[in-house]
Amino acid sequence: MMRHVVMFRRLAAVEKDMARQAELAERMRVLVGEIDFIRDWKVSANVLDRSICWDYLLESSFDDADAVQRYLVHPAHVALIQDLKQYFEWAAVDYVQS
Q: Do 1 and 62 form a contact (C-beta atoms < 8 A)?
């Protein structure tokens, strides 16, 4: 099982827009319904206001590395990324769950 974990935070040069942020987060949450080979999917919002914290965390699982690669190029994911990159920066970790 492969875990795909991503942290998102608003780009420093982008003005905070809570409505836009909420819309993007909801689009992240419902993406699981568009890609049938995602095994587990959870999007969480940060609740503490600390300078080291990121705004959102995506935790997901896939059968294997090939499934993660298929996810990364899936049209629904690519479309979402086009909008996310205008508001968020992100960092990702992909690892084998033992």
A: yes
Which residues, 6+ apart, have CB-to-CB distance to 63 below 8 Å?
Answer: 1, 2, 37, 39
Q: Domain tally for the chain?
A: 1
| Enclosing domain of residue 88 | 2-96
Residues of the chain with pLDDT under 70: none
- The helix (H) or strand (E) run that includes residue 78 is helix 75-84
Q: Are 39 and 62 in contact (CB under 8 A)?
A: yes
Instruction: Supply the pTM of this predicted model.
Output: 0.93
Q: What is the CATH number of the domain that holds 67?
A: 3.30.70.100
Residues 6 or more apart whose CB falls under 8 angstroms from that of 96 comprise: 1, 2, 3
Residue 31, pLDDT score: 96
**Residues in Cβ contact with 86 at an 8 Å cutoff, skipping those fewer than 6 apart:** 14
